[in-house]
């Protein structure tokens, strides 16, 4: 076994301390041909026996630099052939990169590159993907996020690992150290001329801003990298606290999720912002990073605003309803709008039906008054069959509806006021099934019966109405619930 150079030995010690790979791992090296990735290749080649890993190399041509990019691929392929290292190559389609909106071409190309690397890793049965980000890349990234006014998530910079499979074994090393190592080792590399053009923000930071900062602090690259490590630890701690808080205050909602407003307001502002972000990510099912001013708008105009206040963002509707804050997807919001159209179903005694807006099953049957009765509750009610006529219908709430609730001593109450007392929002009101006879509303399903139709000592026959939850009846509802 050939002796390691001092630089290689230090890198091997760092790798063992951080456990980025283990014996038996199959590591796919992402090699562009540039100095960083060639240093990655050289270090792994020198130390793969000591690490107990098997190597493979992947080269991704972004399809943006024509013949120059083809020469890069040829350079990497020949190096792999010389060392007898398995080699895979893929080319991205520039037209597809241009067609995607909402991100810069560089950001889109970067994500596409990761997808291709994962596909190549699967093809080669590799367990890790190593990429060549350096301490300089970390410094540039932090400055980019700083200029955008990022919080701790952005200022934490590039993590050493991504999704466990992707590792960055050079993140603690500067580009100057790697160039010196390649010179000592006698390994050549390719240069990407586009990196020397001050067109993109990262290039301008590298070529113009960092040299100015080095005049003030010659070790600015290492300083920024250390700052990222500190802020990453702070961010991870705050993120754990926010996730615990989110879990304690979130309830599932038929159209999305609901946060307890009082619990949210009791948190420090730093955690409030993170909980709102988690709610948005939960509804969109994406690791979205909305602008800071959107988070503040949700907190100030919805959470701290009046009931009914609303903010919309990329298909998410955030609405305050009394003491809850609803986060609804656009599909759910559209579906709720369709539910504003009255649902009207006939019910024959005895009989049952499934309420399409919630999936609940409503069953009504008739029994002699002498039959023992279970206690009434929110899911069960009893009525004097002689106090109302048929046909019966089950429908949703209409403005102007009223009834005479049990417990109000015969006083009439508008359903709108009844729902307001219960702090039921507009969406929830529309989902409540009303059992209605020609004489009026018999039962606000799951909430209160009308006292005019109560069972008395003169009752001969009783109608029993019973609501059971949707989970007890896995029948597909007639209106999609999502």
Largest sheet: 6 strands, mixed
**Unreliably modeled segments:** 472-482
CATH superfamily of the largest domain, please? HUPs
Give helix % range.
40-55%
The coarse silhouette is: elongated
Instruction: State mean pLDDT (0 to 100 scale).
Output: 88
Taking all Cα atoms into account, the compactness measure Rg is 32 Å
How many domains is the backbone divided into? Answer: 3
- Spatial ordering of strands, largest sheet: 3-2-1-4-6-5
List keywords for this structure.
42% helix, Rossmann fold, 22 strands, 5-stranded antiparallel beta sheet, 6-stranded mixed beta sheet, Uridine Diphospho-n-acetylenolpyruvylglucosamine Reductase, domain 3, disordered C terminus, 3 domains, elongated, 16 helices, 482 residues, alpha+beta
Task: Describe the protein in words.
This protein has 16 helices and 22 strands. The chain has helices at 6-18, 35-51, 66-83, 94-99, 105-123, 135-147, 152-155, 175-185, 201-216, 220-249, 261-265, 269-284, 292-303, 330-339, 415-422, 426-431; strands at residues 26-30, 54-61, 87-91, 128-130, 161-162, 166-167, 250-253, 256-260, 310-313, 316-321, 324-329, 344-347, 351-354, 361-368, 380-384, 392-395, 402-403, 413-414, 434-437, 440-444, 448-449, 461-468. It folds into 3 domains: 6-229, HUPs (Rossmann fold); 254-336, Uridine Diphospho-n-acetylenolpyruvylglucosamine Reductase, domain 3 (2-Layer Sandwich), CATH 3.30.465.60; 342-472, no CATH class. The strands form 5 sheets. The chain has a 6-stranded mixed β-sheet, with helices on both faces. The chain has a 5-stranded antiparallel β-sheet with strand order 7-8-11-10-9. The chain has a 5-stranded antiparallel β-sheet with strand order 12-16-19-20-21, with no helix packed on it. The model is unreliable at 472-482 (pLDDT under 50). 42% of the residues lie in helices and 20% in strands. The radius of gyration is 32 Å and the shape is elongated. The chain has 482 residues and is of the alpha+beta class. α6 (135-147) packs across α9 and α12 (269-284) crosses α13 (292-303). The two termini are 61 Å apart.
């Amino acid at each position: 076994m050939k002796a390691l150079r001092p630089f290689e030995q230090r890198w091997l010690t760092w790798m063992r301390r951080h456990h980025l790979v283990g014996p038996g791992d199959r590591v796919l090296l992402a090699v562009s041909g540039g100095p960083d990735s060639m240093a990655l290749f050289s270090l792994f080649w020198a130390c793969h026996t000591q690490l107990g890993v098997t190597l493979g190399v992947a080269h991704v041509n972004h399809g943006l630099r024509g013949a120059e990019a083809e020469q890069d691929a040829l350079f990497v392929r020949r190096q792999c052939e010389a060392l007898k290292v398995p080699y895979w190559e893929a080319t991205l389609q520039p037209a597809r990169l241009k067609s995607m909106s909402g991100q810069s071409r560089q950001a889109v190309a970067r994500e596409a590159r990761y997808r291709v690397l994962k596909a190549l890793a699967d093809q080669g049965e590799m367990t890790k993907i190593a990429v060549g980000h350096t301490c300089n890349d970390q410094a540039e990234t932090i400055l980019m996020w700083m200029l955008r006014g990022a919080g701790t998530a952005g200022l934490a910079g590039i993590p050493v690992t991504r999704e466990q499979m992707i590792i960055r074994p050079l993140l603690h090393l500067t580009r100057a150290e790697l160039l010196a190592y390649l010179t000592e080792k006698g390994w050549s590399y390719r240069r990407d001329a586009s990196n020397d053009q001050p067109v993109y923000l990262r290039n301008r930071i590298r070529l113009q801003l960092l040299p100015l900062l080095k005049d003030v602090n010659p070790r600015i690259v290492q300083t920024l990298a250390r700052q990222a490590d500190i802020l990453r630890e702070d961010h991870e701690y705050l993120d754990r606290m926010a996730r615990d808080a989110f879990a304690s205050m979130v309830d599932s909602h038929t159209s999305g999720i609901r946060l307890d407003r009082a619990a949210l307001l009791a948190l420090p502002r730093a955690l409030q912002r993170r909980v709102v972000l988690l709610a948005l990510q939960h509804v969109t099912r994406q690791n979205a990073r909305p602008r800071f001013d959107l988070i503040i708008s949700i907190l100030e105009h919805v959470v701290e605003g009046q009931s009914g206040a609303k903010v919309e963002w990329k298909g998410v509707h955030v609405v305050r309803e009394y003491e809850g804050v609803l986060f609804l997807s656009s599909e759910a919001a559209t579906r709720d709008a369709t539910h504003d159209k009255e649902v009207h179903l006939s019910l024959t005694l005895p009989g049952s039906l499934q309420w399409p807006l919630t999936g609940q099953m409503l069953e009504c049957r008739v029994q002699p008054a002498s039959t023992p009765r279970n206690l009434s509750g929110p899911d069960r009610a009893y009525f004097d069959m002689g106090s109302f006529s048929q046909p019966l219908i089950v429908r949703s709430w209409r403005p102007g509806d009223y009834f005479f609730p049990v417990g109000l001593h015969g006083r009439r109450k508008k359903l709108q006021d009844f729902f307001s007392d219960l702090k039921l929002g507009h969406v929830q009101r529309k989902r409540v099934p009303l059992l209605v006879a020609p004489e009026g509303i018999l039962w606000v399903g799951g909430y209160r019966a009308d006292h005019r139709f109560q069972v008395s000592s003169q009752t001969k026959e009783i109608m029993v109405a019973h609501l059971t939850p949707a989970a007890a009846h896995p029948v597909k509802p007639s209106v999609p619930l999502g």
